[in-house]
Please model this.
Amino acid sequence: MTADQNKTTPQFIDEDAVLTPPQAERYLKQVNNELARAQISLQRTRFYELKMKRAYTEAKTTLLFSEDCPKVGRGEGHVTVEERDAWINSRIEDYWPYESAQVQRKNAEDHLATMGKQASIAQSLNNNAKELYATDGGR
Model:
């Protein structure tokens, strides 16, 4: 991790630490910035996933209409839909990149959801710090 990344990514807080209002406010801002970055990352990941899906769908459609594509049916020389799809997927270079893009998008969604929860926690820490320092001067 670079120094620049370290400055913008929310840091772990010692469970026994008593945060001052400025420290809590700084942490809240860090989480807010990471929340914005997570949203942008999710948007980019969704566009990448769409690009990979298009490539996969175009390749699949081409193979579906190919004379070599196994025919689905119950008769002799026919295959199940699952077998036909396996035949198609084994011939598509964009199959695994599309699967990978789906996983990346799900990971980005998880990260955004986690940052949303951390934002709520950061708000609570900020409120606690303000209350603590308002009532006893932070002693």
About this structure: DSSP finds four helices and no strands in the chain.
